[in-house]
Amino acid sequence: LAHHAEAAADADAVLRYATAAAARATALGAHRQAVEQYQRVFRFVDGLAAAERAELLERCSVECFVTDQYDEGIASLEQALELRRSLGDRLREGDVLRRLSDFLWCPGRTAEAESAARESVALLEQLPPSRELAFAYANLAATCGVAGRDHEALTWGRRALDLAEELHDERVALSALTTIGASERDFDKLNEALARALEANLNEQAGSTYDTAVGVAIENRLHTVAGSYLDAGTAYCSERGLE
To answer: Which long-range contacts (CB under 8 A, 24 or more apart) does 119-123 make?
Structure first.
């Protein structure tokens, strides 16, 4: 339906069916197809309000993230950031900065990633405590952790964990717990984070925790341990299109 709507240049139908097709593709783990559907939507968004366009760009960036489509994902977030700023939506602006930080790290733009991470925290700390702030703390913790600055990673990770638990947000709490476990080389914490993510069906968080555990094991020359996480993690992620 989305295909035929585009061929007929029926903007309303494209927005209806391509958006639905993208959401369905995401639910099925067909993340590349989801990106294609969002790209179809973007050819017909001129009539949409800025907030709606920003929301679609942010959704597309998530699908680009798990399929390593760096240029497309970063461009989507940069456009969303401009829209959030134009709307004066500081909460969502801070959240987009956090997402952009996470994405910029992937192609090696690490200085920009850390700058965006710190900007996100600085902005969101000016607002009431929120899930977005907890996520920003967790992201900055992870950014410090992968740079080998364990003390900073633990400081920000504990802030993220405290706020996430206060807000009863399991996903952010597990992200923070994973970083804390990695920074302390504590496999009990990593296993706890993994078990809780699996129980809650938090697929991306579980995959990330498997990946983190593999890295910690390799760094400590625990190759048998690394292999067990790698085998289980690869199988888990492959079943969900999260390789």
So the answer is: 120/94, 120/95, 123/90, 123/93, 123/94, 123/97
